[in-house]
Fold this sequence. Notes:
By secondary structure, this protein is mainly alpha-helical. About 65% of the residues lie in helices and about 5% in strands.
Amino acid sequence: MSNLRIISLCILLVVSGANVSTADAPPEVKTDFSAVENQSSDILMYYEAPDSIEGFNRVIHSFNTYLMGYVIRPFSRFYSCLIPDYGRRRIALLADNLDMPGRLINCMLQGRWRRSGIELSRFGINTTIGVAGLWDVADSQFDMLPQVNGFGMTFEHWGIGSGCYLVIPIEASSTVRDGVGLIFDLATDPLTYLPFSSPLIVLLKLNDVTNVLDEYTVIQESSVDSYETFKGLYFVKRIVSMQDLNTNGIRGESIDTSRNGDVK
């Protein structure tokens, strides 16, 4: 399990960014790694998910790698020169606040009622005191932890199998189940329904990529087989995200490892 734990720590660095020491940096979701390791059968189930279309996946992975290296990376470098780290973090938190409707819907579909209430509270606090979500006051002052949620996780909660591993152009690692979930996620994204929102969506995606570009580069360049590395990272990140959902959303309180609904 030690290798999986290392991978878990790596992916959390990728997700939360390298420089999180500043007081107003995006809050890091705290994960109980001992609880994750105790669920070894679950982790191995995800880690050993079938890769029955590996040939196709490797082609798309190569395309994504080329796109990142020769198209996205130059734009990201230019963007990082225009927008300093502090500004990019504000934009990332704003985007997270805009994603609230989708997370709320999925919390409700999963029967996580306390999480639903926390999601609403976080949105209200961050939209008002946090100035439209530019600061995560709900976490820093009220210990209401941020969360990752989506229809892929809802489908899993309902018992739908992951299907085979799937590499999606631009979006990268996924599974058949989570790939379908992305379509439903778009349907609950408020930006989908705003006229002329495409430039804003591209900006937010570029901001996300820029915030993790250095970590991505380290993993890409240090991997003997980057395809296998990113596949492993994806599945471990997935189980860690589900572990985070099984907390009650308040820092320092207990974790429910049953994976069945809310902590009461």
